[in-house]
Amino acid sequence: MNRSTRAVALCAAFALAGCVGTEEEAIRTRRPADPVVSESAPQLDEQRLADFGMSLYWASPLRGEVITGVFLEGQVLPAVDRKKRTYGAGKPCLYAFTKAQRLYQIDLNSGNVNWVYEVGRELMHTGSGRPITEFVFRPSRATRFKTYDEVYFVAGDHLYALDKTSGAALWITSLDFPSASPPEATRSYVFVGGHDDRVYAFNKEEPEFPAWNWRTDDDVSNRPATLPRNPNVFVASTDGSLYTFPQNAPKPRTPFKTERRIVHDPIMYQNKVYVAAEDYNLYVIDAISGRLDTRFGAESPISGTPVISANSAVGIDYSIYFPAEGKGLFAMRRGARPEGARRDPHEVKWNHPTATRFLCRGLEDAYLMEPTDEFDSVKVTRVDALAGNQRDSMTLSGVDYLVTNPNSPKAAFEEEKLVGGILVLGYRNGWILALKETKSLPGGEFDVAPRRAVAAE
Fold first, then answer.
1. 457 or 144, greater pLDDT
2. Lowest mean pLDDT among 11-25, 155-169, 356-370, 438-452
3. Domain containing 234 — which CATH number?
4. Phi and psi for 34 in degrees, rounded to 5?
5. Under 8 Å between Cβ of 69 and 101
6. How many domains does the chain contain in total?
7. Cα–Cα distance for residue pair 221/180, rounded to 1 Å
8. Predicted TM-score of the model (pTM)
9. What is the residue range of 81's domain?
10. Rounded to an integer, what distance in angstroms lies between the CA atom of residue 431 and that of residue 65?
11. How far apart are CA 254 and CA 107, in angstroms?
12. Would you say 409 and 415 are in contact if contact means Cβ atoms under 8 Å apart?
């Protein structure tokens, strides 16, 4: 279907001031009444930040807006040009939604607003932390021509498709079922879970009605999982089963069954599917064969969607972070498969007993969230990423949203490296701040003034 003119995107260019991915990806740390929109950026103790190993990287105001959610999304996929050089396709971006029902796309590396779209309806499924979905096309190997990338979300009872670069509407379609999950997109389809126990597949070329649907035995409230080169889509139902569908066929393989509900999104990475269940287990499933690789028992219901972050530029060396009720945060590491082995090794390396979320990855450290007894405060703890030893902690006050950033300064692609080590703080009074690990900055030190992005009109 051709691009629709039924909605209008407001686009603007913003000058650069200065130089130069849980249970919930973005979560409110407090729920106050609507604040007074502020012209001044929230104040942070710069000396304490420096002692903690971080610096204020940028501060971005959304002028006149009350922010109701901040989210991070973005696929960085390997692509190959004619000279067989591998590079990244795609770029992580921040999205902010406001009380005025506007969606902003914000550059994660500068804080500048790329575009703003007048939605006019309430954004749905924000509690998952990932209500915004992107699909990134790989450039042609022969011509390096790249199809426009796409952004999807559900607002009210409508499914929206936008151009990622401009924010222009591609199409909007009404849903005749109560949506229960954020959408997930592949090259040809968009998948949405329903409160009627079904998963729906919309063909991008004819999105007016679902191309097919399939009924499970309970709500499909988890965002489906896909990978661009994998022909399957993985759907976790609260009936406790993981369903594997060919994208164009409404008939799943034999479901993978857990012993209790699945209430968190399945995550795909490097042809593995990570499924957190209420039966105390994290399951690692091979996305090609459907075989169970590993099952780790946390001795308590797993309370958040796993987050995956690279340990090095070698794609198979990464860590999976996940919380369990009353047990804290676990870090599982995947390494290279030993010669002759049939399965990839996954081993839990450490457990932080009081942490509840992974926030971001630095060069050597991981930054975690811990609750505090203080009203309106949250603690950020820095630990050795591979050993788990605690190095320091810092309390932040007045922050409404903390955004999990899975990108690593040690990732294979420059687009991920640049935004690795960034911790995003959102404030309802119209401000978004980014802290960046000092070690992960160019040259390893912060030698320029923090930037202030130009405010959106």
1. 144
2. 11-25
3. 2.130.10
4. -55, 130
5. no
6. 1
7. 5
8. 0.88
9. 9-33+43-308+395-452
10. 9
11. 42
12. no
